[in-house]
Amino acid sequence: MVLVQFLVVLLFLYIGMRVGGIGVGFAGGAGVMALSALGDTPGEMPLLVIVFIMVVIIAIAAMQEAGGITYLVALTERLLRRYPRLLVITAPISTWLLTMMASTGQVSFACMPVIVGVAKENNIKPTRALAISVSASLLGIVASPISAAVIFFSATLEKNNHGWGYLELIAVSIPATLLALLVTSIFYLCWDRFKKQDVLHDGAAVATFGVSREIPPYARRSVLIFLVGLVAVLVYAILISPKLGLIAHPIMNSGQARVGVMMGVALLIVVGCRVNVHNIPSGSVFKTGMTSCICILGVAWLGSTFMDNNQQELQNAVSSYLLDSPVLLALLIMLASCFLYSQAASTKILFPVALSMGVAPGVMIACFPATASLFILPNYPTLLAAVALDDTGSTRLGTHIIDHPFLLPGLMSVVRSIAFAAGLVLLIQ
Hints:
By secondary structure, the chain is an all-alpha fold. The protein has one domain. About 70% of the residues lie in helices and about 0% in strands. The protein contains 18 helices and no strands. Helix 3 runs antiparallel to helix 10 (about 220-240), helix 8 crosses helix 9 (about 165-195) and helix 13 crosses helix 14. The protein is globular.
């Protein structure tokens, strides 16, 4: 029966990927109905995770309407144009940093045309920079102190009194992902130059100047307000951390503080930056962010329904293997993440189950970067945007499902992140 239910899950995930876009969420909800028809009890809906994502999207959408995204892109463009021959390094670091601050990959969309433009002006193939930038954006969510995945995972660790919590998680994830990206970027920079495969076309590059971006008057203020909110969430989470014990009985937990602060940030941006609140829902960040929430709702609900109804059988079948082989656990998380369409969904479905099987929390933290493997299947929005925005024709999807230039750079980044995370976990223990 477990096999039949698993095949049903795969069928509806396949249908969702074929439909694409918001249809992924529709297929997930339909899959829950199919599993219910087989006798399964619907699992817990990922409402808390969706709320965490929604409030950040609201704040970023308000910042976009105030011109904050335009300002951040202008700063990114200035960095990329200053060191064009290091584009393979500067582009991923930029998308990682922006995603880490915003806790969503939506902000990286605006950087893709800049990366392509700088590459073309300097006769560089944009493929490699785009490929590593996509994985960098996904790893930025792993490193973000306010991402839904980080907040949920840290709360799970602290709730079960494993001795690991929010502080330890970000102390591992931030340096591990950053170091992995730097090593991967430097490797490909040297490799492509050695192989002489980074040149876009024969002949010298034509020097051009970037498009002048008009920065709205309140753009800088909106970014400052958002950063203050980010710091506030981070500081509060540190203060209430059981490890420090500075606030023994906090009125709000870190998740509630995140929701309240981000809503307050959105209000401050609207009031302090003279934003027309009616224009916020029509912005690209708001639309794509809410679309992602629908996708997560369907897919994560489908996944939790399957896992909750078959947890005992799965535990009996694989728990011994997972306890003996952390590598197998990382592979399972990577495989599940590319189907579940969301790092937050992967974290919510898989990590509590793994902890209940007896997997050490340190091992789970080391495997946490594996949730950034959404690039394996060529259906993730950031990946598709990178392909669509590269008008040079050098970034193409192959005829087979797993046949695209994002696979190897992404795998190298994720695997190195896991390795660095494991090393940091050993140092902290």
